[in-house]
Amino acid sequence: GILVCVRATGVCRSDWHGWKGHDDDIKQHGLPFVPGHEFSGVVVETNVSSLAVGDRVAVPFILSCGSCHYCHTAKRPTVCQNQQQPGFTYHGSFAEYVAVPWASRNVHKLPELVSFIQAASLGCRFTTAYRAVVQQGRLGGGECVAIFGCGGVGLSCIMIAAATQMAKVIVAVDVSIQALQKARKLGATHTVLVEPQNDVVPNDVEKVRKQVIQFCDNQGAHLSIDAAGFTSTCENAIFCTRRAGRMIQVGLPIDSSKRLPAVPMGRVAGWELELIGSHGFAALDLPQLLNLVSTGKLDPSILVERQVTLAEGARALQEMDKGSPLGITMITQFGPESKL
């Protein structure tokens, strides 16, 4: 393994979920605990021949073992049986230093043109989005993609879809006008506003679905992505998928007390829909994503709204009680002076 001096780490909604007690791995670990899983930095100790002290590195949040059945035989490290996740299974990157196990297969050197902030911005948002859109979603040339939920992962999905230059239509769907305006700037060709549900004005589900389908050649999306994990976004994504299309579930449902999605299995069978789960990102594929950044096709740092100290980052985590910020809060100062 290696020891990394953290130069930049993002404050993610997943960190908030862990802090609020929603994550079983953190519960099992117990307190005290250090969150943080979207980071980049410099190697300061190593026993790995491929990485030297002083190397600038990017660290994915799923660290696979390389020896279990799913890593070695199935070649699916994202579902590694022994996976470690900084900030969830062990102390994370809201700190000056982080230990990284199995570094030879999981950690990658940063290209010269990729900054620490860009690498940390890839975090779990862009890596997760890349897997959902490109790997699991198999976005093809001239296809229509609809993305339900324009939070961190949803906006990243839009940027990835735009960066690949494969999609003919990119539809963004959200309850927030501000989020949809951001989606437009980042590459969405069409937006659909979902009116909030309340006792006076019920949510017009059919109107939303009709709009999405119309934007997608009146057939529906080739690729629909639930990037939010709500019952409504899951159901809308399925019903907006065209015949023989793919629906990707990448948003993680949190509140099990609410109504579970009603999946129309008759439609799934009759229309030969593919419902596909997507989790994290395989570290072995990280060079593909870093190449998009180094060649200027993708700039994840566009989503960085502010750079803060470690103490300010902790307060930003607490502020998520009031809602999710549109952009990324990036911790870049871990002591009296910034390391950037």
Topology:
Blueprint: E1 2-11, H1 13-19, H2 24-29, E2 38-46, E3 56-59, H3 69-72, E4 97-100, H4 103-106, E5 108-109, H5 116-136, E6 143-148, H6 152-164, E7 167-174, H7 177-186, E8 190-193, H8 205-215, E9 221-226, H9 231-239, E10 241-249, H10 265-270, E11 274-277, H11 286-294, E12 304-309, H12 310-319, E13 328-333
Parallel strand pairs: 6-7, 6-9, 7-8, 9-10, 10-11, 12-13
Antiparallel strand pairs: 1-2, 1-4, 1-13, 2-3, 3-5
Helix pairs in contact: 5-6, 5-11, 6-7
Overall average pLDDT: 93
Q: Radius of gyration, Cα only, in angstroms?
A: 20 Å
Distance between the termini: 24 Å
Main sheet specs: 7 strands, mixed
* Helix and strand run: EHHEEHEHEHEHEHEHEHEHEHEHE
Number of helices: 12
Main structural class: alpha/beta
Structure description:
The longest helix has 21 residues, at 116-136. Strand 10, helix 10 and strand 11 form a beta-alpha-beta unit. The strands form two sheets. Strands 1, 2, 3, 4, 5, 12 and 13 form a seven-stranded mixed sheet that branches. The chain has a six-stranded parallel sheet with strand order 8-7-6-9-10-11, with helices on both faces. The radius of gyration is 20 Å and the shape is globular. The protein is an alpha/beta fold and 340 residues long. The protein contains twelve helices and 13 strands. It has helices spanning 13-19, 24-29, 69-72, 103-106, 116-136, 152-164, 177-186, 205-215, 231-239, 265-270, 286-294, 310-319, and strands at 2-11, 38-46, 56-59, 97-100, 108-109, 143-148, 167-174, 190-193, 221-226, 241-249, 274-277, 304-309, 328-333. Helix 5 crosses helix 6 (152-164) and helix 6 runs parallel beside helix 7.
